[in-house]
Design a protein that fits this description.
242 residues, 4-stranded mixed β-sheet, 4-stranded antiparallel β-sheet, 6 helices, 29% helix
Length: 242
């Protein structure tokens, strides 16, 4: 799926330097925000949307003469704002996500008013509420297609499933909206952007599927064979294609 906003980034700064571990930890949340904003956004061009959370206003005040920084030019959107790190770091991970989700929403609502961008106001309101409905789960299908195996229709998908410190690519086979088979493919650290685009296509080959991706990956293309066992379908083999 081509996204209207190419990338949303949440960045963390403790007043001294950026905190990359937090940047990576909250990458899934920024990906969720980006996807949900793109569902509704049709306003001024935004290529990169950057939201930075600062520990104190000292650096912002010195650099910009005010305790926040909001800038938009040529599709580049940047907003820097102070949050209460002492409170934030005491929270458990889910409550941290809730806090950042609300802060991001407030920042986008404020920016929408300042930039007179009604679409940003509408899309950020939708993204905020939809994200809460989803319990801030950022998992999504990277690739999906319908296949017919042994005369029956299935949905073959490659999911990105996010953990606190890493993300997984998992293959699933669904029938009637129920996952009947699942196989782990790869794991990577949160923040590795290449991981999110390396799988490109699922193709059917008889009673098998072939997973294709970017060139020069040593483990792609990958073929998954299936067998029928009574009423059930099962994995048979998984191997690289030469």
């Amino acid at each position: 799926m081509k996204l209207v906003i190419e990338r949303t980034l949440f960045g963390f700064n403790d007043g001294i330097d950026s905190i990359k571990t937090l940047d990576d930890k909250f990458t899934p949340l920024s990906i969720l925000m980006n996807r949900l904003l793109s569902d509704k956004y049709n306003g001024k061009k935004i290529k990169y949307l950057n939201l930075f959370f600062y520990e104190s206003s000292e650096k912002l005040q010195k650099a910009y003469g005010k305790p926040y920084f909001l800038h938009y030019y040529g599709g580049q959107f940047t907003y820097k704002k102070v949050i209460d790190y002492d409170y934030f770091l005491k929270l458990d991970f889910y409550d941290q996500k809730l806090l950042i989700w609300k802060e991001a929403y407030d920042m986008l609502q404020f920016a929408a008013a300042e930039l007179k961008n009604e679409s940003l106001k509408i899309s950020s309101d939708y993204a905020y509420r939809k994200g809460l409905e989803m319990k801030l789960c950022a998992d999504y299908r990277m690739v999906e297609t319908d296949v017919v195996l042994f005369g029956e229709q299935y949905r073959a998908s490659i999911w990105v499933n996010f953990k606190e410190f890493n993300m997984e690519a998992n293959f699933t086979l669904e029938r009637n909206d129920e996952i009947v088979l699942k196989r782990h493919l790869e794991t990577a650290s949160n923040g590795m952007e290449f991981f999110l685009v390396m799988f490109r296509k699922i193709e059917q080959l008889d009673n098998a599927v072939v997973i294709k991706g970017v060139k020069d990956l040593i483990y792609l293309p990958l073929q998954i064979d299936f067998v029928k066992n009574g009423e059930n379908i099962e994995f048979s083999e998984l191997f690289l294609l030469s």
